[in-house]
Amino acid sequence: MARDLAIDLGTANTLVYARGEGIVLAEPSVIAMNKRTGDVIAMGREAWKMIGRTPAHIVAVRPLRKGAITDFEVTQRMVRMLLERVGVSRFNRPKVLICVPSAITAVERRAVTDAARRAGAADSQLIEQPLAAAIGADLPISEPVGSLVVDIGGGTSESALLSLGGVVALEALRVGSFDIDASIQAYLRREYGLAIGDTTAEEIKLAIGSAAPTPDELRAEVRGRELMSGLPKTVVLTPVEIRRAIEEPVSAMIESVLSCLARAPAELAQDLLEEGLHLVGGGSLLRGFDSRLAEEAGIPVTHVESPMECVVMGAGQCIESFEAMRTMFMDPRG
Q: Domain spanning 5-131+310-328: which CATH class is it, in words?
């Protein structure tokens, strides 16, 4: 018998929840292909390790950018491999609930559902990530109380104010943690004439990146290729430099949250003064982001439990109950 599945198809990572089992797969949203033959060489963590380290005829790519499908065929192949890894075959075709950003268009919604169906799903439906995150965080979204969820992903940042099972105010921005990585790369090129790859930029962000000053800050030694000579070069970076480098995307994320807050009805705004907002997504784990957001928004800010798994867990709660599925599904026709 086919198992119903919930998939958080993220720009950075993809998680799969199986009904009655919980999370059965969590992999980076990366696929490595041989351009000469068109064969898929690796997917997930294996492909992620290849980014920036492959010969010319092998390319490791992320088929989703800014929360949207940029290569339909590659995305379809990646989804098919994901389904195969969790035991789906042509004789065992599940119904699939897919978490998507609120910012995507009707055409992009249709592309996601079509990719899942062509990859082997018997049926595919969509649920918006902020709603799934609120369900996964056990927020009282069905009550007349304001709940603000801020989801910072790899390619998008979304702020959703929820009450009585619906979205009262929404701000969606196609800026995420990958833009922070890109800002670090641009800064090193501009200030030091140093070229680094995506993986190194992410490592710098994790090591010394922050949105606000934090205790016990350390320096980091970074190796890359000098643009002028083409030779390896080492530089030492400080957290202050990285904060300056990533200020633009971080400020854009915070402004998006403040814009959502400004649209909150007066009664729900009072609720937020007590309940605060809830941070979800891997991008929200940037050091100092919560404290800076709390200072600028003037309300409490807390991380939900398991911020990177919260969205798929919320979608998983939906597929555990047929009634929940029927009420929470979105129409893929837009």
A: alpha beta
Give me the residue label for tokens 């196609």: 174
End-to-end Cα distance, the chain:
30
List Cβ neighbours of 223 (8 Å cut-off, separation of 6 or more): 200, 232, 233, 234
Q: Where in the chain is the domain with CATH 3.30.420.40?
A: 5-131+310-328, 141-304
Superfamily of domain covering 141-304: ATPase, nucleotide binding domain (3.30.420.40)
Give me the residue label for tokens 């026709």. Answer: 333
Task: Determine phi and psi for 163, rounding to 5 degrees.
Answer: -165, 140
Region of 19 (left: φ > 0; alpha: ψ -120 to 50; beta: rest) is: beta
Q: What is the pLDDT of residues 247-260, one digit of tens each?
A: 999 999 999 999 99
Q: Following DSSP, what letter does each residue of 96-151 receive, concatenated? A: EEEEE-TT--HHHHHHHHHHHHHTT-SEEEEEEHHHHHHHHTT--TTSSS-EEEEE
The answer to whether 164 and 144 have CB atoms below 8 angstroms apart is: yes
Helix axes 177-192, 198-208, angle to 10 degrees: 100
Task: Dump pLDDT digits (tens) for 55-75.
Answer: 888 888 887 776 667 777 788
Q: Does the model's pTM come out above 0.85?
A: yes
